[in-house]
User: What shape does this take?
Amino acid sequence: MIARASGGPAVWYRDAVTEKGLADVVAAETAVSDIDGKLGKLWYAGYDIHDLAQYSTFEETCFLIHHRRLPTRDELDDLAEVLVAERELDRWLSDLMPTLSEVTSPMSMLRTGVSASSAYDPDGWDQSAEANRRKAIRLIARFPTMIATYHRYRSGEEPIEPNPKLPHAANFLYMLTGEEPDEEAARAFDICLILHADHTMNASTFAARVVASTLADIHSAVTAAIAALKGPLHGGANEAVMKMLEEIGELDRVEAHIADRLGRKEKIMGFGHRVYKTEDPRATHLRRLSRELGQRAGDTRWYDLSERIEKVVMERKGLYPNVDFYAASVYRYLGIPTDLMTCVFAASRVSGWTAHVREQLADNRLIRPESDYIGPRNQEYVPIEERS
Ligand code: COA
Assistant: This one.
């Protein structure tokens, strides 16, 4: 932590504390979302996530986190209309998709796709607040199309055109699976998108804000955010959870599997959180959705396995599940392939990233922290011939 010496010359001194991983360090002021880790509470612009999961839609949540207030009916209709109108990929990105589907992993496709889509954005390099608002909506609208197009190509199938009659969540599932989801599946997925939309200063949002603070463009900031989300300690955890569920396979293998992993000092994916010291409120909804979708499908295997793992991890480590744990089985029940799960997370979180980028730009200062130098000092330069 750095502090300025009071009075006297402008000398800055270092107070010896450096929080590894910047834990507890406040990196920005935000009105987008807030967490109380002790109480297990999450709010978007002051609205409790439980209320939003119950009453809101992804479209309305997008409006909320971008405007920090709920929309009127007309405002919501307008946004929904623009999100529908902006779903199609530009020609260049469409042409790139067959290649991306052959040579890149899903998250690399998304990272490359967002970066590439900056080239033909209708607002070009205009970085005005209005242009950034339009770019943000365009990005939110196009993530599902990118993911679904990629998936169709790699499955040897033609991409499915977006259906303008379907809302965001239902259209996403439709383009991905080729089938219009029923009301229950569409609503479950809509809730998933609401739950993942924002989460204060998580690693990917921080990455987005750092890039935005340099006054680089919004596509660059979102590209950086995708790169940060890719890792298994962040968004990649949901895929890792699904792989673990598949590996365990049977209820009677849970105990031994978890014991083995912990014995090898491995982390159990989908558990623990930097901020929550109690149940992650998003996990509460995802657990319920996993149970309901499993019961509806007449196949509660993934839910049952998850529930048992949760119990064992709590008994052995006292850790609660985070957002990624039950998201894995929910996505499986919705027909989302395991390796697309992190992309689905991104398709929701792009709403939060873009809200944070716009908030950063509205009152910008370059984010440039200090570091604690721990290497040797006053080294003498030795010519290369004289080095041993
Ligand atoms: N499985 C087993 N042990 C875990 C754990 C997990 N998932 N999460 C935390 N722990 C343990 C650590 O081993 C450590 O124990 P120790 O003090 O005995 O060494 C302690 O809890 C603190 O963990 P740490 O990794 O330092 O916490 P963090 O705040 O840096 O990390 C996470 C938070 C989310 C990165 C971490 O919990 C994790 O890696 N979880 C699994 C990945 C995941 O689900 N990520 C999605 C997050 S939404």
Q: What stands out?
A: The longest strand covers residues 33-36. Residues 185 and 334 are 7 Å apart (CA to CA).
